[in-house]
Protein: Glycosyltransferase BC10-like isoform X1
Organism: Populus alba x Populus x berolinensis
Amino acid sequence: MIGRRRRMTKKSSLLPILLQQSRRRVIWSGWKLVIILSMGLCVFALFRLHLSSPPETLLSRRRSFSREVVFSGPPKIAFLFLVRRGLPLDFLWGSFFENADTGNFSIYVHSEPGFEFDESTTRSRFFYGRQLKNSIQVIWGESSMIEAERLLLDAALEDPANQRFVLLSDSCVPLYNFSYIYSYLMASPRSFVDSFLDVKEGRYHPKMSPVIPKDKWRKGSQWIALIRSHAEVIVDDVVILPVFKKLCKRRPPLDASKGKLNIKLQKQHNCIPDEHYVQTLLSMSEREGELERRTVTYTVWNQSATKMENKGWHPKTFSYANASPQKIKEIKGINHIDYETEYRTEWCRTNSTFVPCFLFARKFSRGAAMRLLSDGVAGPFDASSILARSAPD
C-alpha cells in the first residue's frame, strides 16, 4: 500500500508538467498552422494578382526589362514616319539620308496594313522594307492614331542604339541637312514636346478623374522628338491609354444631310487623342521638368469656316510658290514661341544654348519639296535625276 501510494504521488506530481508540455505543443502546432496558412494565402493572392493582371501590363514589364542592355557605339536617331499609305516626299528624304552616315539613323514607317515599301512603291532605297508588320488601320481623331505612334516607338526601342525618336508625318520636310539636325537633337538631354494647359477648349472629360486629374491635363502638337526614357514611358503605359480610348473621342463632323440631328451630335464631348496623350502622360509621370516644352516641327495654321462648319484651325499646305528660300529663311529665323494660356514665352534652346526653334516643317506638297531640293535645303542633290522618273503607283 505504501509503495502504491508513493507511485500515485509521484504520478500526480508529474501530471501538471505533462499538461503544461502538452499545452505548449498544442500552442506551437497552432502557430505553425497559422503561419503555413498565412503563407499559403499570400502565395494564392499573388498568383491571383498575376493572373488578373492585364497581359499588356506583364508584356510591358518584360519589354522594359529586355531593353536594359548596355549600349556602346554611336547613338542613332530613329525617324518614325506615320503615313497613310506611301511616302509622297520620299525623294526629298532620300536626299536627306544620302548625305548621312548610315550608322547614325534608323527608319521606321507605319502605313496601312499590308502596304510594303519596295522598288515599286518608293523612289528611295532607304525605305525598302521599313514598314511595320503589325500596323493597324488609323483614323484621324481616334485613339488608333496614338496606338500607331506607340507601335513605332516600340519597334524603335528594340534597337538599343536608338537614343532619339522623332515622329514625322507624310508631309513633313527637313529644314536642315542631317548633320545639323543630328547635332541639335543629340546635344540636348531633354525631349522636345509641345505641352501647355488646355483652358479654352474644354476637352478634359470629368469622368477621367481620378485616374487623370484635371491639373495634369495637357495639350500640344503630336509631332514630338523624344529621349529614350520618355519613349519607354509611352510604350509601357497601361493606365492612361485605356482612359483615352474610352473618354477622349472626336465629335462627329457636321453633316448637312443630317439636318437638325447635327444639333444633338454637336453636344457630344469633343477630344482629339493625339493632341493630348503624350503631353498628359508625361505630366502625370512627373517628367515635365525633363522637357523642352515645344515642338521642333513647324506648322502654319489657317482659320476657316463654312456654313455647316464651326470655325476651326487647319494646317496650311505649302505649295511650290510659297516655299521660297525667303519663306524657309523666315521659318528658320523663329527663335521663340508664345503660349497664351500660360502667359509663357518659350525661348528655343538645346542644352542651354539658344537655337532656331524648328528642324522640320509641314504640310509640304511635292512641288514645294522639289523646290527645297533645288535650293539644297536637305543637302547637295541634283533634282534632274528624279524628274525623268515616274512616280510610283
User: Anything to note?
Assistant: The longest strand covers residues 162-169. The CA atoms of residues 39 and 263 lie 61 Å apart.
